[in-house]
């Protein structure tokens, strides 16, 4: 990845070591298991994480107090892209979703006791976690205000009732961060609260693994039932009724870290396609010398470079403590679509080989498609981007001016 003045020497060195680690240790494991983390199970996760610790690249995002390297968002952009060069890289470095986003949020809002109990074991890779927000219709999805899961105050704690789905990593997670309504009605924003719910709570049940297009996320995507799920007052993460605000603390950076990781896969797809185009002879020339293939290679390069620039711009704002609402939405929308285009073109360049399991391109294609839906579908982001632009125009209009 090109380095620029935004990146400090520690991040540059960590990115270099991460690239080396991914090439030598992670990609062989990814190829062995066909890019499906579940195929290697807990033993694979432990082995890769131990190797990452040994290579000094483990937990680049967490503060040193919790055993990490404490990179800012711009530093993460550099390192996460290198880790994302393999589907198994984020798992190895302990920066896979949803754990990485949960660590970020716990560092920002958990109490010291909650940090010791929930953040430390997660940061050290001793446990996994999940984030339970989305519900089957008519509940929360693109529109969080549709939230139907409720938490009622009971003596000494809260009782949570509701059904969630598409909860990544729920099976095997030590705990869930569950978003539940604590005031207002579905369809009105009202107030939501985040609760830390231990997997040993008899009121939290994994109903099923949802069969999905993608398979690279550890623990799959589950439907989870909260049924008479009683948690103590200490399970409240942050303050009651502030859950929607906290979700923004998690979502802006989490959107960007997803982009960084998937950008790594886009680059890998391009490398596979370029290697093939440089070798394959067709119609009396190299494939790479045919104009339409050159166009695809060039468009891939443009999509990767443009995504990287947008991610870095958004990270710069987040590092400055700004909300980054508009810049993260722009970067997420563009990158999710660009990564899909890059993988799709790369597969096209490889012909039938791209469809086969002999290279991982068809696996990458299946893995990147859902990114245009989670962390906000492209349409939701475009709608929000346009609304901000129009609001800016209306706010800036002088009284009496022509509309
Ligand atoms: C692989 C995967 C992993 C996930 N992991 C998690 C997880 O760990 N935890 C969790 O809580 N959730 C998770 N989700 C859920 C994800 O966050 C939701 O799928 C997403 O928020 C969209 O909600 P929805 O699926 O209910 O779609 P809906 O809200 O029903 O939206 C359907 C479609 O409507 C369109 N649309 C949306 N907004 C607008 C608009 N303003 N204008 C026009 N059209 C619009 C879009 O095309 C959208 O795809 C995951 C989803 C996937 C696919």
TrEMBL record:
Stretches of the chain forming a coiled coil according to its record: none
Keywords in alphabetical order: FAD, Flavoprotein, Oxidoreductase
Domain Acyl-CoA dehydrogenase/oxidase N-terminal, chain residue ranges per copy: 10-125
Entry keyword annotation includes Flavoprotein: yes
Domain of life: Bacteria
GO MF annotation list: acyl-CoA dehydrogenase activity; flavin adenine dinucleotide binding
Stretches assigned to the Acyl-CoA dehydrogenase/oxidase C-terminal domain: 241-389
Keyword Ligase part of the UniProt annotation: no
GO biological process, one term: fatty acid beta-oxidation using acyl-CoA dehydrogenase
Cofactor(s) for this UniProt protein: FAD
GO cellular component, one term: cytoplasm
Residues in Acyl-CoA oxidase/dehydrogenase middle domain copies: 130-229
Subunit relationships: Homodimer.
Family designation: Belongs to the acyl-CoA dehydrogenase family.
PANTHER family linked: ACYL-COA DEHYDROGENASE FAMILY MEMBER 11, MEDIUM-CHAIN SPECIFIC ACYL-COA DEHYDROGENASE, MITOCHONDRIAL-RELATED
Protein name: Acyl-CoA dehydrogenase domain-containing protein
